[in-house]
Amino acid sequence: MRIGIPNWMLLALPGVVVILLFFLWPLVLIFAYSLYTYDPLLIFTPTFTWENYVKALTDDMYVTAILNSFQIALATTIATLVLAYPMAYYLARIKSKTEDTVVSFIIFAPIMVSVVVVSFAWVILLSPYGSIYRILTAFNLIHGPFRLMFTKEGVIIGLTYTQLAYMIMTLRSSLERIDWSVVNAARIHGANSFQAFRQVTLPLSLPGIFAGSVMTFSLSLSSFVTPFLLGGRMIKVMSVIIYDNVVSVYNWPLGSATAVILFIISTILVGLFTYFLQKTRLEWLRT
Amino acid sequence: MLTGPYLELVDIHKSFGDAHVLKGVNLSISKGEFVTLLGPSGCGKTTTLNITAGLLTADSGEIRIGGKEMANTPPHKRGLGMVFQNYALFPHMPVFDNIAFGLKFLRTSKDEIPSKVRRVMDLVNLPIDTYRARYPHQLSGGEQQRVSLARALVIEPSVLLLDEPLSNLDAKMRDSMRAEIRRIQKEVRITTVYVTHDQEEALAMSDRVAIFQSGTIAQIASPLEIYKRPGSVFVADFVGHSNFIRGRVQEVSNATCTVVTDGGLAIVVPKTDFMTKNKSLVLAVRAEKIALLDKRDSRENIFEGTVESSLYMGSTSRVTVAVGDLRLFIHVAGEEVRTGKIHETGETVYVELNPRDIMVLQGETES
């Protein structure tokens, strides 16, 4: 190449253009709006102010929303991890092709359906006199009122459900990369099955645990539909607040400031996560 | 040392789905003995090893180690050490932790661990100060193999199992590790079961070799016995390079008997007890036991033939000679030294099948 750009770099060009145009540029715009002044008539005027950030970081409702978002994302990540790991382990050791296809289909089915539909299904299940309530009362497991709709727990349940498939597949591919004779070696040389899991399988699947957790965490943090439908007006999270500001109140500057805060915080967290992963990636992964 | 069986497998059966992989394996190994399970792939040798280790469960049969029934004992309570084909080192642990792994589960006091690891690393020739902190991916195949061996030996297992440990090494490394493993085995006098498909390895290392043939043991004997007196066509074919000649007993005399091949060649063979007139049997002659002569003399079993091909391979030549309807594969050692020339295709030669070197077998040839 005369201009000195290798051909393989040119391959990335269309993607780079799309990202620059449709991701970075809007981001720059949002950042700009966040520093503009709100105007009830014109939406905003291009006069610089910190006011939006001050409100987004001090107003009770906004602070609660930030905390809610993180609590929900963290709890969802943990719940998803705990539920997905055994499932992924089972899938990684599956031998029959048909079994694999059937089980994988069942796992993927929920994400083939629109998240709106899935969330409405959870509304039906979780509502005060919904299916779960009726089953639990039928077995005498609960007495009195049943509250999961419009609670954090309800949102976490819904989010966990929508994130599960991604987590399972990420963990599965990392578990599948483990050479099982290594686990057998642990078993023969004195480890019982729990010790072999704890000391060999689990550390060797750490890359998958990290990758899956980062993905689930950031997807949950920025998710909108599920917290909107299951949390309603009671459980405010950042994404819903941004939506309200931008779509209902037409306060674009405040919405943008909230969005920038969400973006910065989640970038820092994902960055820390990744840094931690690289560090504990340990020497053994660097082949 | 060789007192009664130490490791015993009795009538082991195992199926995977429709495949009946082990059809009654019986094996009994004395304390300190080195026994190799040798056979083509899919013959059940690795399955037998995994059943011994407890990684697989036999459908039926008994496993005893030191007189104790083991069939229902999980792998970690069998007191074994194992070396895997791909070494199976823990990739996330440095060499020291890999080797010390098994010690954590024994009642080894914390202070004893370093000295035990040091001793076993000395044994496998890995300087502890150079290697203790390295990770498996920083080691060569041969070094990984030594770590793997050390990890298995440090727990002083009752039986050492090795599953094709040398097959991933290059030829030179294989030769030296072969001698190394045998030296270590003799030094610690550990009962050893070694799985391989490499006959040279089996013959070179073992006290006894068990030849596997589709799920059963065809013959178990010392390497010399296996080579000199194979019990069946399969064994003669699997170990060494043999020529098989089908024929029918024509005449039985006091010490010898004459076998006539389908092509009408009359071959004098030593007499064995199962020979009766007209019985059909298989003669086997090792490729290196057939002599190539320039002219006929008065000895028995010299036949005229034509050289079909001749490959010079350095220390030997591989010559194919057509004798009547037979095609004999012959390894000629140090050919130039003896005759100063290489056999040409089409040349007329004489082959000598010394009756002493003819193995008389019952059963059919593979072909």
Secondary-structure blueprint of this entry?
The complex is a heterodimer of chains A (287) and B (367).
Chain A: H1 7-11, H2 13-34, E1 37-39, E2 43-45, H3 51-58, H4 60-92, H5 97-112, H6 115-126, H7 131-138, H8 152-176, H9 180-188, H10 193-204, H11 206-222, H12 225-231, H13 238-248, H14 252-280, H15 282-285
Antiparallel strand pairs in A: 1-2
Helix pairs in contact in A: 2-14, 3-14, 4-8, 4-11, 5-8, 6-12, 8-11, 8-12, 9-10, 11-14, 13-14
Chain B: E1 5-16, E2 19-30, E3 34-38, H1 45-53, E4 60-65, E5 68-69, E6 80-83, H2 95-100, H3 112-123, H4 128-131, H5 141-153, E7 159-163, H6 171-188, E8 191-196, H7 199-205, E9 208-213, E10 216-221, H8 223-228, H9 233-238, E11 242-252, E12 256-261, E13 266-270, E14 280-286, E15 291-293, E16 302-312, E17 316-323, E18 326-333, H10 335-339, E19 348-352, E20 358-361
Parallel strand pairs in B: 3-8, 3-9, 6-7, 7-8
Antiparallel strand pairs in B: 1-2, 1-4, 4-5, 9-10, 11-12, 11-14, 12-13, 14-20, 15-19, 16-17, 16-19, 17-18
Helix pairs in contact in B: 3-5
Can you name the CATH architecture of the largest domain in chain B? 3-Layer(aba) Sandwich
Number of helices of chain B: 10
In the CATH hierarchy, what is the architecture of chain A at level 2?
Answer: Orthogonal Bundle
Instruction: Characterize the overall form of chain B.
Output: elongated
What is this entry, summarized?
The complex is a heterodimer of chains A (287) and B (367). With 287 residues, chain A is an all-alpha fold.
Explain this structure to me?
The complex is a heterodimer of chains A (287) and B (367). Chain A has 287 residues and is mainly alpha-helical. Helices cover 76% and strands 2% of the residues of chain A. Chain A is built from 15 helices and two strands. Chain B folds into two domains: 5-236, 3-Layer(aba) Sandwich (Rossmann fold); 241-361, OB fold (Dihydrolipoamide Acetyltransferase, E2P) (Beta Barrel), CATH 2.40.50. In chain B, 23% of the residues lie in helices and 36% in strands. Chain B contains ten helices and 20 strands. In chain B, strands 6-7-8-3-9-10 form a six-stranded mixed sheet, sandwiched between helices. In chain B, helix 3 crosses helix 5. Chain A binds chain B through residues 179, 181-182, 184-193, 195, 200, 203-204, 282-284, 286-287, and chain B through 53-55, 74-76, 78, 80-82, 84-86, 88-93, 101-102, 104-106, 135-137, 151-152, 155, 161.
